[in-house]
From TrEMBL:
Pfam families (alphabetical): Ribonuc_L-PSP
Signal peptide segment: none
Domain of life: Bacteria
InterPro entries: RutC-like_sf, YjgF/YER057c/UK114, YjgH-like
UniProt GO MF annotations: deaminase activity
Any one of the GO CC terms: cytosol
Protein name: Enamine deaminase RidA, house cleaning of reactive enamine intermediates, YjgF/YER057c/UK114 family
Length: 142
């Protein structure tokens, strides 16, 4: 059995199966990242914030959380998923002592039924002008 490295020209080409939500491709191309990538039956979604169409933050915290979930759901839908397919969630919250309970009052509007996905909540000091961000890993149906 050969255990060495293949010469560079024999390595498989690394391609990403990227999912873009409708109408937001320029935003991701400008910022040089993929909104989501399909790999091995899973969808890995970049952190979604409550950004308006022009990219600016929604100023009201509750509406910012709702908009982050709507932006997330647009990506999930484009990949043929729903939030029920999500298996892992990471949320980032600025000033979690003040904002965590406020966010968690809104989450049930989008979260779905038990059993719920795993969750990691991280308190941060800065999110590029936003106060809430959510990133997920989802199982792709079928």
């Amino acid at each position: 059995m050969y255990r060495g490295r293949l010469p560079r020209e024999e390595l498989p080409m690394n391609t990403r199966d990227v999912v873009f939500p409708p109408g937001r491709r320029a935003l991701y191309e400008r910022n040089r990242y993929s909104p989501a990538v399909r790999a091995n039956g899973f969808l890995f979604v970049s952190g979604q914030v409550g950004s308006r169409e022009d990219g600016s933050p929604e100023p009201d915290f509750g509406q910012q959380v709702r908009l982050a979930f709507r932006n997330l759901n647009a990506i999930l839908a484009e990949a043929g998923c729903t939030f029920d397919d999500v298996v892992d969630v990471t949320v980032f919250i600025v000033d979690p002592e003040k904002n965590f309970e406020k966010a968690w009052e809104i989450v049930p509007e989008f979260w779905g039924e038990a059993p719920h996905p795993t969750l990691t909540g991280i308190g941060v000091t800065w999110l590029y002008g936003f106060d809430f961000e959510i990133k997920v890993i989802a199982r792709i149906p079928g």
